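Per-record layout

source: Pseudogemmobacter lacusdianii
name: GHMP kinase
length: 347
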Amino acid sequence: MRESFNKVRAKAPLRLGLAGGGTDVAPYSDAFGGMVLNATVSLYAYCTVTPRSDGLVSLEALDIDKSFQCPAQPSLPLGHELALVAQAYNRIVSDFCNGQPFAVTIRTHADVPPGSGLGSSSTMVVAVVTALCEYLRVPLGEYETARLAFNIERQDLGLSGGKQDQYAATFGGFNLMEFYAADRVIINPLRLRPWIISELEAGLILYFSGRSRASAAIIEEQVHNVKTGQSRSIEAMHRLKDQARQMKEALLLGDFAGFGEVLRDGWTAKRDMAANISTAEIEQVLDAAIATGAHGGKISGAGGGGFVMISVPPERKPGVLKALGSFRGNLFNCHFTQEGAQAWTVL
């Protein structure tokens, strides 16, 4: 380990779940194998690491106005709102510094609110791990970075969720992801022709319905349904996994009608996984979008709120946007990205 004396920054892209979301969550992925197709977009989680000379570690979440500070130590306390960042620091110290702490300020912020359904919490962990590894000159590969971020969030802290977010943020781009037992993960990048990506972007609408307050409960219910063998939920996840394959084919062929059909079918299957995935507002938004010409749409994430992703023929996008203007949510602009997590030293 060689500690930097310069400021280091990192960013990791958020993702849109296109098909198969939820099948990356154990025990389904362990028992049946999960498959997810997602794509990263130009909305990011950021981390800045700055050296200190006073022997302290300071954590600052600039976008939610939360902070925590204590003396540098091998294991920072976790009983506060920045436990994810603290545990990322703890694992870096434990795994790569022989238990020797170092004094730094770690500042984070994201382009979207927490609970967005775009994987912001997991993406933030990837950004922090990437920044700290750059700061310490630790050469982690993509699989190693994603696996460490997953372990910090799901195993160390016991937070509910799947695996796709960490791998999407680390690898970037359009990826068909396979998830199996024993932490076996295979990332298959899709080589889409540029005109297909441009057409998708031209017809993409992101509608933010508000922070999801039910996602953890939805994931826990999904896990319970699989463990207890509830056939409706398990069959829904089988359909979602198959839709990831269908979505891959539609994208590679530039079949946008097929793309929209998979979105619609995926949303129907997703609602069968657990209760409270949808809300009255989300259903009204999707109905209004489809009535004015959208191919289809779905929640990105576990559900209960967050971002609604809508695919529209570009020439019909102004009409759909006008229809959505009558709802209380916010519209976001973004582009698809090919790059995953990146870090750089500020001299």
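summary: The chain has a mean pLDDT of 91. The chain has two domains: 7-190, 194-332.
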